[in-house]
Amino acid sequence: MINNKEYTISISKEELVLLPAARFDGRILVVDTLTGLEKALADLRSCKIIGFDTETKPCFKKGQANQVSLVQLATPTTCYLIRINKIGLDRGLVELLEDENILKVGLSIHDDFHNLRKLGDLEPEGFVELQTFVKAFNIVDNSLTRIYAVIFGKRISKGQRLTNWEADELTKAQQAYAALDAAACLRIHDTLSLGNFHPESSPYLHFTEEETETQENCES
Questions:
Q1: How many angstroms separate the first and last alpha carbons of the chain?
Q2: Where residue 153 sits, what CATH number does that domain have?
Q3: From CA 97, how far away is CA 113, in angstroms rounded?
Q4: Per-residue pLDDT tens over the stretch 125-138
Q5: Which of 106, 129, 150, 185 satisfies CB 3.0 to 4.6 Å to 51 for a cystine?
């Protein structure tokens, strides 16, 4: 058994590009009405843990910024794409995000909170920050793409990130991208929490210099 202080886990850009593409195989539901949101929230509230992410229409002019367009919330089987640019930051959604009894898992969540607060009062509770959570497993990468690759050996494409999230209709490619990000957060948390990832067996181990010297001395 390797002492967890003697190694880190990280994937290089060169290793990442060689991996097969990841995909979300669950159900994707676009929510752009308050009636649809009510149904989505009923399902989400039946879960103890859900994945979380947001998307914002990109700006290409310095000094300009857009508001959050989309909130993605994923259960193990379904990802809801809530178009808050169309229905607003509804009180029911706020209450879910503030419910400490429902665990929400995301990455770089403080940025999401900062941007969502521009739309209304929000005091998020019950959130897990994956960038912090994975450190206990010696994973030092911070991006969702790299963390997912380290654990599952698949690459999350970021090709849709800078597309128009305020378009009249989201394309199938946009929907798949947005759903995968939220679902990936949930899957990472569940896999690590259940002990189904074994850091010491990772192909992306990087030993400290001291440990490497020790191993070489033992082999010589």
A1: 21
A2: 3.30.420.10
A3: 10
A4: 999 999 999 999 99
A5: 185
Record the tokens describing residue 159, joined without a space. Answer: 């090709």
Distance of CA 92 to the CA centre of its chain: 22
One-letter amino acid at 104 equals K
* Spatial separation of the C-alpha atoms in residues 75 and 195, rounded to whole Å: 20
Are 41 and 71 in contact by the 8 Å Cβ rule? The answer is no
Which residues form the domain of 111?
7-219
User: Residue 70: how many CB atoms within 10 A of its CB?
Assistant: 24
* 2 inside domain: no
Structural domain total, the chain: 1
pTM equals 0.89
Q: Is residue 142 part of a domain?
A: yes
In contact, 72 and 81? CB cutoff 8 Å: yes
Q: Minimal CA–CA distance to 88: which of 41, 30, 42, 33?
A: 33
Q: What is the largest CA-CA distance in the chain?
A: 70
pLDDT average per 10 residues of sequence, the chain (220 residues): 71 96 96 98 98 90 83 98 97 98 97 95 97 96 97 92 91 96 98 96 85 44
